[in-house]
Design goal:
The chain has about 325 residues and is of the alpha/beta class. The protein has twelve helices and ten strands. Helix content is about 40%, strand content about 10%. The relative contact order is 0.14. It binds zinc ion.
Length: about 325
């Protein structure tokens, strides 16, 4: 199930070159302001546990913003039923190029007000068709347009961030050209809402699947004038499928991406390294349960479960993580 020792060693050696061990450990062990250097103050996202130690020492008690992806017509009701403090939504059919729209009757302003009144943080997931890395103009140009439209509507909803997949190229494309396209997208997008790049599960020429590719993409975006508006979403099912060792995946991902702004907390129906993207309920897939829990909670970031099933199954996922429903 795990990566080979050689792979792990190579990865940790790469990580050491990027960051001193002391700095890396300090980042892992504290959640101070530098932990989330981006646009959202860390205190909103993560309990100040350094100042007020948690008597149970249970990392799940420190997750302030958590919830699930809501696909139904009333996302805030789904969040309330779970006792969640966050929710993730799509703005339309994720496999369509149709302009994004909020699928609730009362419109963006009312949704924003209701979410704020309920104390629920909103995250938006961009459509799966978006692929800003593509070397094909007929994919890349509409991708940028759809992503900007998604960001704009997310802004009207008061969203904390917009998640977008890292994208992929065809087999013989040069990944450096895909990264150049990513850079152009970030340079030209209006990022009133932060953009979180999500690691993906499979594909031989994916832009953000392996640690090496994540490092390269991060480096390509580092000196964009908009780089402070770009963060990273760490999906545990995708990391498992991509060959990360879940026991150290959160730290490895952070070392590669530089940060984790959101966790997609998912188990997997497939074997480690399979490249398959089939989510499972937590503790009921093929991820090692202890390593999965470690990966999710040691990411120290808001978390969204994208697990299948009914409310009861989401509640079981919540309880598996030890998250406490809001009163
Ligand atoms: Zn995900």
């Amino acid at each position: 199930m795990n990566c080979s020792g050689a792979k792990r060693l190579a990865r940790s050696q790469r990580n050491r070159r990027r960051e001193t061990p002391a700095a890396s450990n300090a980042k892992r062990l504290t959640a101070d302001a530098s932990y989330y250097p981006g646009p959202v103050p860390s205190a909103d996202l993560w309990g100040a546990h350094a100042a007020s130690p948690d008597p149970t020492d249970d990392p799940s008690s420190k997750v302030r913003l958590w919830g699930a992806h809501a696909a139904g017509p009333d996302p805030l009701a789904e969040a309330a039923a779970l006792g969640a403090t966050a929710v993730q939504i799509m703005l339309g059919d994720p496999r369509s190029w149709t302009a994004p729209a909020l699928g609730v009757p009362d419109g963006p302003a009312a949704f924003r007000a209701a979410a704020e009144a309920a104390g629920v943080a909103v995250f938006v997931h961009a459509a799966y068709v978006v692929n800003v890395a593509s070397l094909n103009n007929r994919v890349r140009i509409p991708s940028r347009k759809l992503l900007q439209q998604t960001l704009d509507l997310a802004g009207r909803l008061g969203a904390r961030g917009v998640v977008v997949h890292g994208g992929h190229l065809t087999a013989h494309d040069d990944p450096a050209a895909g990264r150049a396209n990513w850079r152009k997208a970030v340079d030209t997008l209006d990022l009133a809402v932060p953009l979180y790049i999500e690691n993906t599960a499979g594909g031989a020429n994916a832009m953000a699947r392996t640690a090496d590719r994540i490092v390269a993409l991060r480096d390509a975006l580092a000196d964009s004038p908009h780089s402070s508006r770009v963060g990273w979403c760490f999906d545990t099912c995708h990391a498992h499928a991509a060959g990360f060792d879940l026991a150290t995946a959160a730290a490895d991902f952070r070392a590669a991406a530089g940060r984790i702004d959101l966790v997609h907390a998912n188990d997997s129906r497939d074997l480690a390294g399979s490249g398959a993207d089939r989510h499972a309920n937590l503790g009921r897939g093929l991820c090692d349960p202890a390593a999965l829990r470690q990966a999710i909670l040691s990411a120290e970031a808001p978390l969204i479960m994208e697990t299948p099933g009914s409310l009861a199954e989401r509640q079981a996922d919540r309880d598996w993580l030890g998250l406490t429903a809001a009163a």
